[in-house]
Each structure stands twice: as C-alpha cells, then as structure tokens.
Design brief:
heterodimer; B: five-stranded antiparallel β-sheet; 9 strands
C-alpha cells in the first residue's frame, strides 16, 4: 500500500482548506504522534487531548509549513511534542517515571527492519545517533522520548547534573555536524 | 548571561527544542524568543531535526473519538461568515440585506474576539509580566464563556502567534496598539489580524492566508460592522497576497467606533463596492478587543 500523497503535499492541501487532506494526514501520522505523546505523558487521556489540539493547530497553521526547511512529520511532531513538554512542565508528572520499565527500550538498537520504515532524514538521524557513545545516546533518547529535564535524567541515571548537561550539549553539536555532512 | 553569544544562543535553542529546560527556564526563554526572530529560526531548525526521532516512536492507534472531536472543532462556523455572493432577489437576498443578520455577525465576531484576551495571558509574547497577573482575574471569567465557541487555549495560542507577530511589527513602528482583532473565515481560520491604535487612528491589517477565491477584477474591502448591524467602508486592502500588511488611518470618531465594533472583509469589484454597503461575499470577520489594561 503506497502513500498516494506525501505528508508534505497533504499539509499543503490543508493550508488551502481541504478537510479531506487533514483526515488523510491524520490517518498516516496520528498513530505515531499518539504513541509519542503516550510515552511522554503516560496518560491516555492527556495524550488524546494533545493529538486533538495538535491537529487543530495543524489545520490552522498549515500555511506556515515550509517543506524546504524540514519534513512534514518532524513539523507535526514538534507541534505535538512541544505541547507535551508544556503539559509536563506546567502540571508536573501525573505518573512518576518508572525507571525499571524504561530499561527495556531506552537503548534498543535500531534494527534494519525498523530503519527501513523510516524516511531518509530520520534514517540519517538514527545513523548519526548510532555514532555517539552509549551513554550520551542513551540520555538523548531518554530526554526525547520521556520528556525528561536534565535534572530528571541525572537522577534516573545516577550521574552528576553537570555531566548530563555536557554529554547532551556535546552530542547535539555532534549530531548536527553529522546530519549536515 | 550574554545572550548575544552565538554559541550560547545555539545551545539554548537546542535545549529548548529538546525540552530539557524546567518550567520557569522554559518560560524565561520564551520571553526571549518573542522578540528575536533569528533565535526562533534557530529553535525551529533544531526542532525539525530532533523531531525526526518521532518516526521511531511506537505507533499506537488513537481511539475513533479523537478524530471525531478534531472534525467537530474544524467544522465550518455557522452563520459567522457566509459563502456565496448575496443575491439581490429572493430569500437569501433579504437575509443579506437585513440588519438582523449583520447584528448576528457583530455579536458572533465579538464572542470569538473575547477569547483573544485569553491568548494574551497564555502567550504573553509582547506583554510585560506584571500585566499578565492583572489579566488573570478577567480571564477566569471569560474562559468558560468562550471555551465552547473557540476551543482550547492551544488553538487560541495559534491565533495569538499571528497576532503577536503583528503586534511586534507595530511595536517597532510606533506605540503599541490599544485594540486587536483576529478575523476568521467560515472555516475558523485566522485569515487576517488587525491592530488598532485608538489614539492616532492607525489600523494595521495583515493578511495571513490567501482567500481561496478568484481575484480577477476583484478586491478586498474592509468594513466596520457596528453592534447594531450598520456597516461602513474603511477602505480597500491592497493585495490578496499572504503576508501583505497595510495601515489605514481613520478619523478619531471612526477609530473610537471601531474599538467597540467588528471588522468584516468582503470581496468586491475592483475599485470597491459602489453601493456603500458590502455587495460581495463576506470572507472573514472579527471583533476588536482592548489590549490596554
């Protein structure tokens, strides 16, 4: 089953007021955004709210999407994830971080099958992540998928705050260097 | 901290995009972002890179009611804006010509606009912190009244974004506006933002989106719609290109009247309506709300 229209084209159709395009975009992207929101917020109710708000925001702001600057999926995800982070920071965590449960996936290596499903840009980011050392990579993933602050990441890993900060900062710079190569 | 240091700017942009800041740090950084376009670009670049990770998130199918709610919230607004040119004869023509209809437009636009005051508190991009506290009390009261009509704070924030960027441009030009409006189309999209300075009668309008219309020999005309349903032309909008900003300078009494009224934009023959009243379809409307506290 091939996508008949790219997510980018669907977003641009949304900008011209095409509701069907938003529904198609929802069908191809909502599961991933819902999955991301669930992982960060650990609450179905909140994650559902975030997905709703995000798509309404997408509908209203689609005209601001510029395909030359980045991928549609990343644009959508930044809308959804920013809202997740705001919720976490404003209300605090409703469910405390479950350190044991995180061990299972926090440094899962990307399998060839998983990689094949990714867009070219996302695969490149994964490649670049894989080039980082284990601990910085682990922290970056934790921070992204759990929405952790530096402090939370430091406590979770039992590493000094300063170390966490410098790992993340250095990794970010290396990541960008790698992606722009 | 020296926020002019490029390395620090880049680092903060990345950390904001990644979301590692605490709540207060995040809000502080957002205040910095509000006045700094280059910094916003840096943040967006980082966001578009880091959020490629979302593709690797486990997909979970959301329940069906999630889409139903989205569909409800983006559904066309009834009666706020009417599609189709008014016909001079028949039922529809009478409706179009009736003051009652126009009073409805003014009232609905005002209800939508009330929600905008809410945005000022949620997205205090160009408002001083001490003003926000003063807003809180007022907001609590209008919050319930406006929620049903306009949706969540997130949506209002989206309108607010547009408004804030306009407000910033005006800030750079002259004194801050006393009243603002977001004009929505029938799909509730923020087509135009308006910004009024009642002291010098300056009305700054910015078109955000291209109306899906044929503009051959057509032009956008801006109307003041009073609460009693009367309307008068304020002038023509120069282009249908998104991003176009124009300033109209209004006589003092017109500016005063506008502060308590709504704006409507209609599609008219080139040169504007010849009847003194809107003759083409109304594409978007929105009421003015005061920003001064």
């Amino acid at each position: 089953m091939g996508r008949t229209q790219s997510r980018e084209a669907l977003l641009q159709a949304c900008a011209s007021g095409d509701r069907t395009a938003l529904h198609s975009l929802y069908r191809v992207t909502a599961p991933q955004l819902f999955g991301l929101a669930l992982r960060i917020l650990k609450s179905r109710e909140l994650a559902e709210e975030i997905v709703q708000d995000s798509f309404v925001l997408v509908w209203r702001n689609a005209y601001a999407f510029d395909p030359d600057r980045g991928a549609a999926m990343a644009w959508l995800a930044s809308i959804a994830r920013n809202q997740c982070i705001d919720v976490l920071r404003q209300r605090g965590r409703e469910t405390p971080l479950d350190h044991a449960a995180m061990e299972d996936w926090e440094d899962e290596a990307s399998s060839p099958a998983d990689l094949a499903a990714l867009s070219q840009d996302a695969r490149r980011l994964q490649d670049c992540l894989d080039q980082l050392e284990e601990s910085p990579r682990k922290i970056l993933r934790l921070v992204y998928y759990e929405g952790m602050t530096y402090k939370e990441a430091a406590a979770h890993l039992g590493v000094p705050l300063g170390t966490v900060k410098s790992w993340v900062r250095r990794s970010l710079v290396r990541l960008r260097g790698c992606m722009e190569r | 901290m020296n926020y002019a240091d490029p390395e620090l700017r880049d680092q903060l942009a990345a950390e904001y995009a990644l979301g590692t800041m605490s709540g207060p740090e995040r809000r502080r950084f957002e205040r910095l972002l509000s006045g700094d376009r280059d910094l916003r670009d840096l943040v967006e670049d980082w966001e578009l890179k880091l959020n490629l990770l979302a593709e690797s998130a486990p997909a979970v199918e959301p329940p069906a009611h999630v889409w139903d709610e989205i569909a409800r919230r983006i559904a066309p607004a009834p009666a706020l804006v009417r599609e189709g040119a008014p016909v001079r004869e028949g039922r529809f023509g009478r409706l179009w010509d009736s003051l009652g209809f126009w009073r409805g437009v003014a009232a609905l636009a005002a209800a939508t606009a009330a929600a905008l005051v809410f945005y000022v508190a949620i997205l205090p991009r160009s408002v001083a912190p001490e003003q926000i506290a003063a807003l809180d009390e007022r907001l609590a009261r209008i919050e319930n009244a406006t929620r049903g009509l306009t949706g969540t704070p997130g949506e209002i924030a989206a309108l607010g974004d547009r408004l804030a960027s306009l407000a910033r441009r005006v800030d750079a030009m002259a004194s801050p506006p006393t009243h603002v409006a977001v004009l929505l189309d029938k799909d509730q999209r923020p087509m135009m933002t308006a910004d009024l300075d009642i002291a010098d009668g300056r009305l700054v309008l910015r078109l955000n989106l291209k109306p899906p219309r044929d503009f051959t020999a057509k032009v956008l005309e801006v109307w003041l719609v009073s609460p009693d349903g009367t309307r008068r032309s304020l002038g023509l909008f120069p282009s249908e290109r998104p991003g176009t900003t124009t300033a109209l300078f209004l006589p003092h009494d017109t500016a005063e009247a506008l502060a308590k009224a709504a704006l409507a934009v209609s599609l008219e023959p080139r040169g504007g309506s010849t009847t003194g009243l809107p003759s083409g379809p109304i594409l978007f409307t929105g009421a003015l709300v005061p920003v001064a506290l």
